[in-house]
Design goal:
mainly alpha; about 65% helix; rod-shaped; single chain; two-stranded antiparallel sheet
Length: about 140
């Protein structure tokens, strides 16, 4: 609960929330080392997604199914991030939101790539079909 106190013509905001205990987490307590570790682990997740995309995937199937498969293969890359947050006593609500954000960003990027690759393949197939029709004797 916040209270606004006017003292000597100046407004002073005073926070009446319970004081944080030494065992609880506050957003300003993550060390640089921890932040770097989380960034490195998030980068490992992104690298996994990229490696799965570069390894190839069936372009004839539904792009959502391909995306789900790739995301499932890389899900274990998110476990170290959760463990790092847990070690720092970050509340589950916050760590789960961060992980959900990473999953969502990854899913969007993978789906966009898969759909682009399928569109390119479809365009190439259409182009070959047109070329074949134009090369037939009349």
């Amino acid at each position: 609960m916040s209270i606004l106190i006017i003292a000597g013509g100046q407004a002073v905001a005073e926070n009446k929330a319970d004081a944080a205990t030494a065992d609880s987490w506050s957003e300003s307590t993550l060390s640089e080392k921890t932040q770097q570790q989380i960034q490195t682990e998030a980068l490992n997740y992104q690298k996994c997604l990229n490696q799965q995309l570069m390894a190839g995937f069936p372009t004839e199937t539904d792009p959502r199914a391909v995306t789900d498969t790739i995301l499932r293969r890389c899900e274990e890359q998110l476990i170290p991030i959760k463990k790092t947050f847990d070690a720092e006593k970050v509340p589950d609500e916050i760590s789960n939101r961060y992980l959900r954000q990473k999953r969502t960003q990854g899913a969007r990027n993978v789906l966009k790539f898969v759909m682009s690759a399928q569109a390119v393949k479809a365009a190439e197939a259409a182009s070959k079909q047109i070329d074949n029709q134009n090369n037939q004797p009349r």
